[in-house]
Amino acid sequence: MAKAIQAAGRVIRGPEERGLIAFLDARFLEPAFAQCFPADWFQESPREAVSEGILAEVAAFWKEA
């Protein structure tokens, strides 16, 4: 889990940068793993970041860039 968080931190290094971080394994939602995420990534739980339409969300993210 520490390696996953470290890798995510390499995506965005400054406030002017944009990037996507995707954790594609369901185990990241398990409490033992979810508690390891930085507290400021979510309001309550990593589950709120689960996508219902990942391809559309990725396209919209890059379109806004």
Q: What is the count of helical runs?
A: 3
In total, the number of strands is 0
Quaternary: single chain
Beta-strand fraction estimate: under 5%
Overall body shape: globular
Rg computed from alpha carbons, rounded to a whole number of angstroms: 13 Å
Strand-pairing-aware structural class: mainly alpha
| Stretches with pLDDT under 50, minimum 5 residues | none
How are helices and strands ordered from N to C?
A: HHH
What's the rounded overall pLDDT mean?
A: 90
Q: How would you characterize the largest beta sheet? A: none
Roughly how much helix do the residues carry, as a percent range?
A: 25-40%
**Terminal Cα span:** 29 Å
What count of domains describes the coordinates?
1
Describe this structure in words.
The chain is mainly alpha-helical and 65 residues long. The chain has one domain (2-64). Helices cover 38% and strands 0% of the residues. It is built from 3 helices and no strands. The chain has helices at residues 2-11, 31-34, 54-64.
Secondary structure layout plus pairing:
Elements lengths: L1 H10 L19 H4 L19 H11 L1
